[in-house]
Amino acid sequence: MNRGRTPQHVAVIGSGFAGLAAALRLAQAGARVTVLDALDGPGGKAALGAFDFSSGPTVVTMPQVFRGLHARVGLPLPALSPARPTTTYHGRGQSFAPEALHVAGSLEPTLAQLSAAEGRRYAALLAASRRMYLDAAPTFLFGPPPTLPRLARYALTRGRRAAPFSTLARFVRSGPRLTPFWLRFATYLGADPYRAPAVLHNIAWVELGYGVWHLPGGLLALAGRLHAQAEALGVRFEYGTRVTHLSTHGGRVLGAHTDRGAFAADAWVSAADRALTAGWLGLDEKPTPRGVSGFALQLRLREDRGQAHHIFWPADYAREWRDIRRGRLPQDPTLYLHLNGREAFLLVNAPPRPDVAPDAREYGAWLLERLQKVFALEVEDWHALSPADYARTARGGALYGRAPHGLSGSLRPGWTLPQARNLVQVGGTVHPGGGVPLSVLSGWNGAGTLLGLPYDDLDGRQVPGRGEVWPDLS
């Protein structure tokens, strides 16, 4: 690719959040942009299921990244409000509702809910998570894909403080009540928490330090705003267009074959699952274990239940993951419930197998029955999403690509493929990782490399310091 020169025409594959961010940055720089997507509208995984219902919670983390993106593309800043508490956890006849440190300003509201021994362990593990996050962020989150020298520098300095030879399960051991609480943050990157490295403990700080935030309208509304802004900049969207093959010559992508014909472009951004991109290029990559998938219910309620996030623990958290490893739906799953007015979203972990739920409606009804026993809702209608639905956007339905197990597995691939010099790979399956804010960073900056633009962290480093709280973001 000709870095420093704007390609005349760039094609973006995928209109999830990475693809939308990429299209916006390219269009702002003067490129002609066409976005190809197999779905019928923008949003990627957030657009699966009912057309007017975000297939995910309306809460986000890293509020500074969303505000930074809006500022860069000329949109009014979103009115974000913190979720207080972040989440309410239910299990063993007890509830636990932690507050984010930089929202509450103190650990006291959280520690008051725990025994003295639990409180000491909570404070110690929160401090460890903060240290791991601050140590890792410059290299693995808010910068381009790290080079070998940068990786070595991290490993020889800060990396030694991230328990590199420990598993997450060993590192966060805190008794029957809090151990599952700390383990479950690894699922945010699609990990089996019992196979994850201790370094993934840094994820907990993003939520417990900086907070969880309500996003007006949810992710689907955000996708709509970004899509409209991209169209205003001249981006053309081709929905219902499924890529089947990428034609290459001389190490460059010349065009995409789709079920609606062929498309040509000077340069390419793939915001699809990296495994799908490799398949379209005909690359015979070594297969790697896929991360966790999900089974979800979109629930329409008869009454407004406000905004809240709940987690209901199973009797045996480890058994849930044994079921998933065996390739079957868990028989006693953790229930993740998000309430947003007259809508609710229920999610459970599932193996990355599209065939795991031959009758999604049957398993969905069983899940709804289990939910009603612990949290009664007046449900008017519901729609199920199985791993087969998530497989429309990712190989096997894995939400974030390959499983981040072991130290090497926790490293995300970079943005380039040597077999396709005029293509960059972005999104949740590559650097810096899964989740909407990181996918946005990936799309924005991966596309920027096509243009020779400097790295832009979208204000990701602008967070409260020790002892500070967020200003009003509403």
Written overview of the protein:
There is one protein chain. This protein is α/β, with parallel strands linked by helices. Helix content is 32%, strand content 19%. It has helices at 17-28, 63-73, 101-104, 108-111, 116-140, 148-156, 168-171, 175-183, 203-208, 218-232, 274-280, 317-325, 360-374, 387-390, 406-409, 436-451; strands at residues 9-13, 32-36, 59-60, 81-82, 88-91, 94-96, 213-214, 236-238, 243-249, 252-258, 261-264, 267-270, 293-301, 307-312, 335-340, 343-350, 379-385, 416-417, 420-425. The strands form 4 sheets. The chain has a 7-stranded mixed beta sheet. The longest helix has 25 residues, at 116-140. The protein starts with 8 loop residues before the first strand and ends in a 23-residue tail after the last helix. The model has no long low-confidence stretch (mean pLDDT 94).
